[in-house]
Amino acid sequence: MIATISPSAVNGTVQAPAGKSAMQRACALALLNNGTTTIFNPGNSNDDQVAIHIIRQLGALVNTTADALMVHSNGEPKPAAHIDCGESGLSFRMFAPIVALCAERITLTGSGTLLNRPMQYLETLLLPLGVEIQSNNGYIPFKIRGPLIPADITMDGSMSSQYLTGILFAFAHAAIKPLRIEVNKLTSKPYIDLSVQMLQHFGYNVQHEQYSVFNIQPVVTQKKDIIYTTEGDWSAASFLLVAGVIAGTVSINGLDADSVQADRSIISVLERCGAYVQWKNGVVTVSNKRSLRSFEFDATDCPDLFPPLMALACYSNGQSVISGVHRLFSKESNRAESLLDVFTSMGAVVKITDDAFVVEGAHRLHAATVSSHNDHRIVMAVAVAALKAGGDVAILNASAVNKSYPAFFEAIKMLGAIVSLNNDN
Predict the structure, then answer these.
(1) Element (DSSP H or E) covering residue 309
(2) What pLDDT does 370 receive?
(3) Which residues contact 253 (CB under 8 A, 6 or more apart)?
(4) Which of 282, 289, 294, 423 is 20 to 30 Å from the Cα of 29, by its Cα?
(5) Helix 161-174 and helix 20-32: axis angle, to 10°?
(6) What gap in Å lies between CA 246 and CA 385, rounded to an integer?
């Protein structure tokens, strides 16, 4: 699909989509729960559908209603010959330790960009826990056979916090004695806050000591029904918020002002730039009443903010610096190279210095045709930046947006953006 965005103003109110990070975690915890889990406000992105498919493969019965997902499970993953993780890095890293609870060999596969993402740390992590594991030189497919035997371990947290999430879920479920996990150099701490918060909601006893030590206490397994409501997704909403600041006024309903989601920090950046931000009755409204100021921001713990912040920086007066670029190398694309490519193609003055993007703002972007690099966040970043460009911007393979936010183009069109979608690509 080719999406063409014409310069246009935006104004209006939209509902935040369900948070896919929370939705995928809720699916995993519902599989491990002995009982019925009702997930209200379930997500429908490609990654969400992958997580639902995985828990079905592992034995859960999943039904849908008008506003909820009902997951029935006996709490023990059922072996399956193959588990397809699609293009979801979170599902792969999170479900791998859960799959390892099974005594039978299971092959974890994937598709698209996931094929090119190195996962060799999984072998380092699971082998000492009694798990047989084979990979394609550190890439999928992975063949895993447990059962995983939880033990006190030390982890490298710099690889991805998603590995820790998977270990926490598997250990919390299987623990028969207190367990201690030491973690070095943990990145993306807010995502671990989300994991711990959800573990506690599902009845597990997990605490941490300044993110360097995680303590897991065994819990008595009993049949129970759980209700969980997926909050709005700050990652997806960040693009809509930046659109409002760049090109008009946008209000978003369904976001939690006190959320532990990492990307909630977009609000502090917008305020720092001089944008108007207001919370009222659970709705956040942003607009730009004056010239935007440049900013400096460390996105190491929230790398998904790099794309919307690049769009914001292009329209902020002065030199903006976004650090933590090393977190972008193994995303759906090499997101550092992809961002550099699409924004320079649109006329942005940007470079990578050491571990940071340096953007010279207030240079008018121009019409261009760019590749999405098969990266959903690149699609949204370009679309938002195009709202104030000097001409039409076409995005090739824009259907990549379905990975996280299938309704993105519908949302910005509702706000007044002029968007043409051509399915010939």
Answers:
(1) helix 306-314
(2) 97
(3) 13, 14, 15, 16, 232, 282, 283
(4) 282
(5) 20
(6) 8
Q: Which amino acid is at 1?
A: M
Q: pLDDT of 310-329, one tens digit each? A: 999 999 999 999 999 988 87
CB–CB of 199/228 below 8 Å? Answer: no
The tokens describing 120, both together, are 């060799």
Mean pLDDT of the chain: 94
Token pair of 83, please? 């588990």
pLDDT tens track for 259-286: 999 899 999 999 999 999 999 988 999 9
Residue 124, token pair as written in the block: 């380092």
DSSP 8-class letter at 315:
T
422 burial (CB, 10 Å; 0-12 / 13-18 / 19+) is: exposed
Instruction: Pull the structure tokens for residue 212.
Output: 């360097």
Q: Which of 156, 180, 184, 160 is nearest to 168 (CA)?
A: 180
What letter represents residue 131's amino acid?
V
Question: Residue 119 carries which DSSP code?
Answer: -
Q: What is the largest distance, in Å, between two alpha-carbon atoms of the chain?
A: 63
379 φψ region: left (φ > 0), alpha (ψ -120 to 50), beta (else):
alpha
* Residue 94: Cβ within 10 Å count: 27
Place of tokens 């609870």: 101
CA distances from residue 298 to 264, 266, 269, 322 in whole angstroms, order as listed: 14, 11, 10, 6
Q: 348: which 2 tokens? A: 């942005």
Q: Which domains does the chain have, with CATH numbers?
A: 2-16+232-422 (3.65.10.10), 20-220 (3.65.10.10)
**6, burial (CB in 10 Å: exposed 0-12, middle 13-18, buried 19+):** middle
CA distance 199 to 349: 44
